[in-house]
Amino acid sequence: MKLLRFALLILLYPLLLSANPPPPVEQPPYEPDSGQLIVHCGVLIDGIAAEPLRDVEVRVERGRIVEVGQGIEVAAELPRLDLSGYTCLPGLIDMHTHIMETPDSTADLREVYDHTLEATLQTGIEMARITLDAGFTSTRNVGTYYGFAARELRQRIEAGEVAGPRLQIAGFYLTVPGGGGDLLIPGVPEAEIPAHIRLGVARGPEAFAERARRAIAGGADVIKLIASGAVLAFGGVPGAPEMTPEEIAAAVAVAHEAGIPVTAHAHGAQSIKDAILGGVDSIEHASLIDDEGIRLALRHNVALSMDVYNGDWIAVEGRRAGWPEEFLRKNDETTLMQRQNFRRAHEAGVTIVFGSDSAVYPHGLNGRQFAYMVQWGMTPMEAIQAATSKAARVLGWADRVGAIRPGRYADLVAVAGNPLDDIRVLEAVDVVIKGGQVFKAPAGLVAGGEAVQ
Fold it and tell me: What is the annotated signal peptide range for this record (predicted)?
């Protein structure tokens, strides 16, 4: 895959003010969050307000939004991006990605054993660019088989060495032996499994507490527990608990003492309740949640991240690619129930955030989930807010991202259409701005009097 292209960085530098702007930058480094410009939006959905605004300008200085309104007075030399024919939204947030991995190995997971750190990082670099181009300027990477590979990617993005979304990472999965986060494969002796794949395998409260400490010491932004069986793992039953309530509570106590949130992979109704009562901050998948689980999520203000699109991709493309029959069967058994429970949880008022589980299906297709969220009960505005202000709040970044309001980073996307009329326009965004810098835009848009290439 071609490595790292991104469009002209809009900065208030003399070079940009010349008659002939430089060509698109093909290779970093660049200075993150340093853009300065005015963006004129034909329609603005700010991520918080219930109604869009029209003909609004957004002024950006040093990568942050400083003013939003009409008729903003600024110095004439400030670069301008004319999006009067577009709908602008906050940069989108995906709360459930696996940015270091792709679906290519799912047909034969033994391939993962041979992935080197360098190859895993290269995959992450490429998938980060694809994710950013899809309009997702912030993501939460909720687990990587190769230990802390995502930590290196996060550091490189923050340093401007590669282009990608703002990234929170979980490091390795905390899972029981043979659980949904333990890459055991029938016929492969455990002694042949690389140690870096099993860093989070534990049994008993003390061991899980120790693994949580290890993850935090390694730089985790969030702890990921595998509380129930998994769909894409051998031997597990999605509806069956794997971690005990005591193991969950022990890991949560360590994380919360360090100020780190915890999310739990939990398909099964009992595991969802165990995780909520154990103190987790969010639930991934929540496929088989019951009425009591919904009530507990409301009472304890626990958000759900429900990946309601990818079941269709697995059913078609997974079969075409020859994925294990066990995986396909478990996907068939949970997909419809998850969507029905998505509707029930939404109607009850539970916070649901956008989480795609990308890497189960190809990165860059994240936006396909919006239509499913609308089909199963959300309004288009609710689906947008699930991927903007609500997701930012669960990330702990409500003061940074998720809204086009003064003080936040200047992370914006734009589409040539109105997602409130057709949510599917978010499947292919036209403009991506992160930190006030343009990473994607059609040729011909005006910035500083010149065309963005």
Answer: 1-19
What residues have CB less than 8 Å from 173, skipping those under 6 apart?
A: 143, 180, 181, 182, 200, 224, 225, 226, 265
Label residue 207 exposed, middle or buried (CB < 10 Å: 0-12, 13-18, 19+): middle
Query: Which structure tokens are listed for 24?
Result: 């698109």
Instruction: Give me the mean pLDDT over the 245-250 stretch.
Output: 98
pLDDT of residue 62: 94
The helices-and-strands tally (H runs, E runs) of the chain is: 13, 17
* Dist CA 151 CA 149 (whole Å): 5
pLDDT of residue 74: 75
Domains annotated for the chain, with CATH where assigned, are 14-91+402-451 (2.30.40.10), 92-395 (3.20.20.140)
Q: Which residues, in sequence order, are CB contacts of 304 under 8 Å at separation 6+?
A: 282, 283, 286, 289, 297, 345, 350, 351, 352, 353
Give 159-180 pLDDT, tens digit per residue: 999 999 999 999 999 999 999 9
Q: Which helix (DSSP H) or strand (DSSP E) does residue 212 occupy?
A: helix 205-217
Structure tokens belonging to residue 168: 């929170």
Orientation of helix 245-257 relative to helix 269-277, angle to 10°: 40
Tell me the pLDDT tens digit for each residue of 292-331: 999 999 999 999 999 999 999 999 999 999 999 999 999 9
